[in-house]
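User: quick one - fold this with S-adenosylmethionine bound?
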Amino acid sequence: MQQAPFVFFCRPGFESDCAAEVQAIANAYELAGYANAQPDSGYVRFYMFDESSSERFFEILDVADVIFARQWFWAKAELEAMPLEDRITPIMDVCSDVAIAKTLLVEHLDSDDGRELSKFCKKFSTPLTIALEKQGLIHEESEFRLHILFLANDHCLVGFSPLERSSEHKGGILRLKAPRNAPSRSTLKLDEAIQVLMSRTQQRDAFRLGNTGADLGAAPGGWTYQLVERGLQVSAVDNGTMDKKLMATEHVEHFKENAFTWLPEKPVNVLVCDMVEKPSLVANLMAQWLEGGYTQHALFNLKLPMKKRFQEVADCIGLICDRLEEAGLTHFWQAKHLYHDREEITVYFRLKSRVTKN
Ligand SMILES: C[S@@+](CC[C@H](N)C(=O)[O-])C[C@H]1O[C@@H](n2cnc3c(N)ncnc32)[C@H](O)[C@@H]1O
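Assistant: Sure. Structure tokens for the protein plus S-adenosylmethionine:
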């Protein structure tokens, strides 16, 4: 019998990378399963071969550990050809077998078809929540999140995820508004990265008043803007021109130099890097800064090749981890293909042992 699938949401076009990554996670735990993904659908289904492997997979999965997935859940039921005049009844019929949940997310995919369901999903959420509450299927003390993923207006998957290991945002997408004064729209990439990849404690440590930052490949200054907004004094390295308003804040010093050779006179608290360069070159540069004690926090993009993107990402992150381990530096890292990332992923490294350069 086919097992109930695990569902992973990804950016359309990245289904095979997401599938390869989920397969690698299952393999690492010696759990046998297989992925099924339609190109450009914006999601992957992953099937385990038996129920006990499914249960084990559910216990270990964490959205923070899956780079190419923004959200996941275990789909316990699939409803097709629901009557459009009453979709609540068939959903309620299966919900009691899924889980008593603390919260509900009515979701759609990030594909063209999926986005067309966005308005409906928003509207449907309130009546469904009321119906679930009436039946006692929403409970404050539950550790689960209920997911209703609409694939078409009469077709949905119903499942659940652990609150602590899935995203609280619909489809795992943190919606942000571009600030009016930001020099570029890519400012949103760093804003999202900080909020998704860094814990509150890590953010507090990185963005203390009086802390410093370096932005490699900074022009026109969208990322520098985010650091300045969070109270940092920033060294912006780029041959290009920086935004005038940002420079007028007097929180930025502009170095028109090559970011692959420039180093700060004193270590900075936060390094960010958004250069369009070969991922292995960026990975080596980040390793150099971290192992040299030039920074404790590093946030950077790895621009992805066209093929075998998961392998390239795994190699680059592996390279940095190996170098830090060789240097005896304990560290934390997390990476994600964020909503505002296109052909790139964003990576965060934090040194746990504090290193200062003499
Ligand atoms: C994608 S843009 C950065 C956009 C910026 N993060 C923002 O939000 O406005 C990449 C920048 O990297 C710079 N760059 C590329 N190679 C560089 C190098 N070797 N040294 C310094 N800057 C470099 C380019 O000049 C370009 O301005």
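One thing worth noting: The pocket of S-adenosylmethionine is lined by residues 183-184, 186-187, 217-223, 237-240, 258-260, 274-276 (CB under 6 Å).
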